[in-house]
Design goal:
By secondary structure, the protein is α+β, with helices and mostly antiparallel strands. The protein is built from 24 helices and 27 strands. The protein has five domains: 61 residues, Helix hairpin bin (Helix Hairpins, Orthogonal Bundle), CATH 1.10.287; 241 residues, DNA ligase/mRNA capping enzyme (D-amino Acid Aminotransferase, Chain A, domain 1, 2-Layer Sandwich), CATH 3.30.470; 83 residues, OB fold (Dihydrolipoamide Acetyltransferase, E2P) (Beta Barrel), CATH 2.40.50.140; 123 residues, 5' to 3' exonuclease, C-terminal subdomain (DNA polymerase, domain 1), CATH 1.10.150.20; 67 residues, 3-Layer(aba) Sandwich (Rossmann fold). Helix content is 36%, strand content 22%.
Amino acid sequence: MTKSEARERITKLKAEINHHRYLSHVLDKQEISEAALDSLKHELYKLEQLWPDLVTPDSPTQRVAGQPLPGFVKVRHAQPILSIEDAFSLAEVAEWQARNTKLLGEPVAGYFGELKMDGLAVVLTYANGLFTRGATRGDGITGEDVTLNLKTVESIPLRLESSSGPWPPRLDVRGELVITKHELARINKEQQSRGLPLFANPRNLAAGSIRQLDPKVASARKMEFYAFELLTDLGQSTHAEVHGLLRQLGFKTSQHCQELNNLKAIEQYVKWWETKRQTLPYQIDGTVVVVNKIAQERILGSVGKADRWMLAYKFPAEQATTRVREIAVQVGRTGVLTPVALLTPVRLAGTLVSRATLHNEDEVRRLDVRIGDTVIVQKAGDIIPEVVQVLPKLRTGREKVFHLPRTCPACGSKVIQPAGEVARYCSSPRCFAVTREKLYHFVARQAFDIEGLGPKIIDQLLDNGLIKDAADLFDLTAGDLLPLEGWADKSAQNLVQALAQKKPVSLARFIYALGIRHVGRETAEDLANHFGKLDKLRQASVEQLQAVPNVGSVVANSLVEYFANHVNQNFINKLFKLGVQVQTITAKPVGRLAGKIFVLTGTLSSLSRDQARAAIKVQGGKTSESVSRGTSYVVVGENPGSKYNKAQQLRISILNEVEFKRLLKLN
């Protein structure tokens, strides 16, 4: 950037920041988040550091002076440690109050507000006042014994304060293990000096530290424990009393908790910490509001995945501003073209983000994203980076409008747009980008699951002309691999053996591995269970396919079109000639859950999605990706999506992780 360009950019940044300052502080309005505004200020600050002579007295940066063991043993908790229901708006908090008031038959007698610290939840157990065990939350029923590491945390008393005795035979305390921002920076500096990877955020560092087998590692990292719940009855009548008792017992508690009389007080508390959270030494991602009166807590009890008497108000997803350097186009395994914004790297929710999907051309038009634009990005669900807003006032006139290419950027073939679809596709069945993505999909864990065969090796095999499609994998020999860089006798033999072992494949995995448009894992399983044999599926008509549960006209037509294509027919026959054997389903699944349909949403703490699906399938049940009136159960984990809300609307049975495992007898 030249000095002239910097001057132009600084002028525009100052105007944009002052515009939002006026809206926020004078008119009490907000067009962009505090995080996005902070990001603009940071960019201005960096530019002024590079060109100090461009700093003016009216710059927003001048408002503030200065610069700112072999393994762990599983242990069972004395009582279930449930998760907390989330709310993302004050309207949802009001709905929560209305539900509780109806259940109680009387008004809620006040609340208690706490900060939702971004750390690791642990449970401490004391026997006759002596610290005897510390465990992670785990799945809420069972956690890991990390007592030795927790003993290195000096804010955890090894013996309860004598003045608070006599103590019960057993006393359990729940709290959060936290690492400060300052400590994270110190440790990351050490990591960098040693050439080691950096920790993304304090939560990851706390979790990694407390699960070190060597307690000396945990001891070297300064962690703090904040107690917030007493799981043992000591006669407390309110949650405020709980915090007082915890302090008497010798525990550190947050000084920022307070009693809240009504919804207005909750709103003030939430808004205050939403704007002031950056002043805290540790990270928080929201506030927690609990019903203050213990007697009312007991009446409300729990439902689904959480206690009714507790609610977590989550702050908006962390946002930041950055520049769109370029808009690239990716070609997927079905040939779909997806525009991707290549960004000036920006740190977002603890990670460095340099790419964000734009989904399709319609989304690009809706946002009016141009190459060179300043944009606001956030992580959808704190996971997937996305562009949420363009700041057009920061345009210089040199930005470029993006157009999706009319020819495939990979192979040059014509791009087509099927009737009724937003997406556009490469028209060539032989596009090498599509071939590459199809290969990645074919060997993936949910498909053929070829151990040791990842994208890098596939790229190497393609680039050296050893394979042209997935079937060629089963024709490889160790001698083919040895001349390639990085291969030895053992690794070559291992891959060839891994491929041979996966030649017998289930019908569902085979269907999914083909990468047929609109056919996902659940649909593949439905098709396999319905037809039993691949030949029957290949010969099925649209009408016969639509008789399969959850298969509509779009999927049915896609299947008929795929199996009618001579290129696909030749590919399947080639697989058979090379020894691939698709197993026939001789009998429909039976078991105690036969006929039951499950939908999974959110993250389960003790089971992966694959493990949960497998457990359901073993007992004769089925899983589906969508909630309907035919759904038997919706299993809800952390951060559930819209499926949870739809299940509530349709009055479908909702199971939390503990209830789900109990139903499947996995405990």
